[in-house]
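Bumping my old thread because nobody answered last time. Still need a sequence for this structure:
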């Protein structure tokens, strides 16, 4: 197509888009004389472009799944079906004019790749047009647990985990480029055996359409460790926490355990045992350097930790509150008073949305809480301002209240490797 024709076609699609906008804005009317009507004959497609009337250079010959594109040509209203490879697209007649058809590429991966669009007409003729559908590289979102021993089973969650050519599964590599044995794989989940020698760092997945490294997580992430109860602890606070390493077995050495009777059936933690269900890390009393415990940007940082709940938990929320480095010897920040307003925190109470109102884990899992979510009071109310720079010099965890009334329980909540890391 020469430049003159492209210019004319660009004018044509701009006009078509204006018409489409007008069609969408029309009120419903049974006697609408401009109601959609199919036409006979066959369509011709001049080109495909991104449906943006302000863009004059967005012609495309391929697009990712889920992308909306405009087919520009003639006799578009003769089309009753559009297929990309072997996947049928959804048509909206409000987005079809005689010269333009706007459609979204199906987000299902094709079984048979032909790199063509098939347009089926009202008279059941099929018109083909060369067009490729791009499948993204693997997308690695999370691991069920980021800390797994060599030989243990790890689960990676994401999307587009397609087998490599000549295999039934994708390939998985741990740092430093050690290939793992894949136990099973679906489009969204891979189960692997952690290879001997796997080290701290990202994990890579190779699929039929490319290779990706994890950005949202590291395996055995040791960046930004605040508390691991092996090399770092909460000594100096009123409560350093009950430390354990067995029953259940630790994920990486010692951990802190919250356990005992807990009854929040009145919404106020009536039998709460502070010694058994809390720790206080006060920066100044613990000998931490003055300032915040981490320096990554607040908007893109995540608090992570591993947890193992091996006895049913059904009462009270795990409350997490950062405190200023100089704050010590007080806990008024939990409830607030005239001298110390309540500090914002984050709340995790998975039992509140679990089946039958109880929560247990099947071993250790990784929990992620964005720093930007530290905006709640102890009752689960949203505060106007979240934790700010200068307010992250200490950290308190405790199980109490949270805004959802539970039932009496004797949970066993084991926590390890508390850290703040970049979101990606």
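Sorry it took so long. Here it is:
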């Amino acid at each position: 197509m020469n430049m003159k024709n492209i210019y004319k076609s660009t004018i044509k699609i701009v006009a078509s888009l204006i018409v489409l906008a007008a069609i969408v804005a029309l009120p419903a009317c049974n006697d609408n004389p401009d109601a959609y009507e199919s036409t006979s004959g066959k369509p011709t497609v001049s080109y495909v472009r991104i449906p943006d009337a302000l863009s004059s250079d967005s012609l495309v010959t391929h697009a990712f799944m889920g992308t909306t594109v405009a087919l520009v040509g003639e006799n578009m209203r003769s089309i009753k079906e559009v297929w990309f490879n072997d996947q049928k697209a959804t048509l909206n007649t409000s987005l079809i004019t005689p010269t333009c058809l706007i459609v979204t590429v199906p987000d299902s991966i094709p079984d048979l790749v032909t790199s063509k669009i098939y347009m089926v007409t009202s008279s059941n003729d099929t018109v083909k047009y060369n067009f490729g559908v791009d499948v993204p590289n693997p997308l690695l979102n999370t691991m069920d647990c980021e800390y797994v021993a060599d030989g243990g089973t790890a689960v990676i969650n994401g999307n587009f985990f397609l087998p490599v050519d000549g295999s039934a599964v994708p390939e998985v590599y741990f740092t430093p480029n050690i290939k793992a044995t894949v136990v099973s794989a679906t489009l969204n989940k891979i189960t692997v055996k952690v290879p001997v020698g796997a080290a701290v760092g990202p994990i890579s997945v190779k699929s039929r359409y490319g290779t990706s490294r994890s950005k949202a997580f590291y395996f055995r992430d040791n960046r930004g460790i605040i508390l691991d109860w092996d090399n770092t602890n909460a000594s100096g606070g009123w409560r350093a926490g009950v430390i354990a390493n067995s029953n259940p077995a630790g994920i990486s050495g010692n951990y802190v355990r919250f356990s005992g009777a807990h009854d929040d059936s009145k919404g106020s933690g009536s039998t709460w045992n502070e010694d058994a269900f809390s720790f206080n890390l006060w920066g100044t009393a613990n000998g931490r350097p003055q300032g915040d415990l981490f320096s990554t940007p607040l908007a893109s940082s995540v608090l992570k930790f591993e947890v193992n709940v091996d006895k049913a938990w059904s009462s009270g929320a795990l409350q997490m509150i950062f405190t200023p480095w100089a704050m010590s010897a007080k806990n008024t920040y939990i409830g607030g008073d005239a001298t110390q307003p309540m500090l914002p925190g984050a709340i995790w109470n998975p039992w509140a949305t679990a089946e039958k109102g109880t929560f247990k884990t099947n071993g250790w899992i990784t929990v992620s809480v964005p720093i930007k979510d530290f905006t709640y009071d102890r009752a689960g109310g949203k505060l106007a301002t979240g934790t700010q720079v200068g307010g992250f010099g200490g950290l308190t965890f405790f199980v109490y209240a949270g805004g959802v009334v539970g039932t009496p329980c004797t949970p066993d909540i084991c926590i390890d490797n508390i850290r703040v890391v970049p979101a990606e």
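Residues 3-25 form the longest helix (23 residues). Let me know if any region looks off to you.
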